[in-house]
């Protein structure tokens, strides 16, 4: 027995193993996935040697499938958004520097004086900011992105279940096709023996020539059925190889598992409610839908945060250089600048002394451009600020965003409810189909046993010339039809039964 540990998609409940001759349809997921998953030459993995078990086929498909990879990348994007929202709580810090040349009449960026000359200017600044309060929007954004990331992880599991479903469906289709080939080859062998026997009886004069012709016609029909069944084997082998994203189906073979007789299984009880309650707690698509409802609720809180004031803190530092800025520098020399006469006191009062003056010793300066480092040091400026923004009226944008978020919550709740409804219906349908397939198999088995007896009796009568070839072929075809119905009912029951095992959390084995 081969055990498959990978869970299948919830759509498995509505899928059918299917008959190769249009008795049972393909699963919906298998019909849609196969055309959209052609082998990619750049990504396909060469087919390993040896036959594939179901578990091995699932493992290869999960490794190579492009849809799973795309879902994983989507989850990584959600994780990046989560990291970014957490980083939004950190302060911001930025630095900038610029250099410019001004020609002609311009305003000096540092002296703010008009001048008509070529000026080189450098500006240096650094700023920092911290969001102190923004209506809890940052915190709610983190929680929402965390929920979205968890939902993305559930989407990965759902995608893996999709692939496992399609692989299991195609695997069972291929097993069924191979069994029908063996059954049709056995019928051809029987028909060949019947033609040889009829020809001997014709030569002995025991039967009419029409009996030989009828036997040959039946042989041709059986050989056509073999070719049809072989074509179906080739089709499902190719489909399974494409699901595994293998470059070619040449040499691709599977291990045929030993499957139990449905009559040996316990009678299936119709208990969809119990299975549903178990499945609700296990299915990743249900978990993802619930997480997205919570995420939508966080979106409402984010929108409501726009009603609150915003408070932020900022700090900056600035300095610069201008080639037009000049400074005075001592030359080391000095001059005496006359400041007035020197007076002498006389009995009649103060009297200026002729030729004698008072002077002030004044140092000499020269005008030179101010250096770069001294300008950067002298022009240093600092700033601290608190910014408070109070929303009053902004075109009702906040109210509209809140209303949209509330509607988004209702939509998410409806999607979650739809996911649960679909799951319940799938389980109910799986139970109904499994019970019907088990009953149909038992009836087809009894029919096959009865028709086998009738066929043996018809064969004896035909060999003794008591039955014409047409009636004998009718008896033979009735038996073959019953056998085909029994085989198809067997695989359909197995498929449906494994669906219910999957929903109940048990390992699926073939």
TrEMBL record:
Q: Provide the alphabetized UniProt keywords.
A: Cell outer membrane, Membrane, Signal, Transmembrane, Transmembrane beta strand, Transport
Q: What is its main location?
A: membrane
Q: Ligase among the record's keywords?
A: no
Claim: Glycoprotein is one of the keywords in the record: no
Q: Which domain of life is it from?
A: Bacteria
Where is this protein found?
Cell outer membrane
Q: Which family does it belong to?
A: Belongs to the outer membrane factor (OMF) (TC 1.B.17) family.
The name on file for this protein is TolC family protein
Q: Which organism is it from?
A: Hymenobacter cellulosivorans
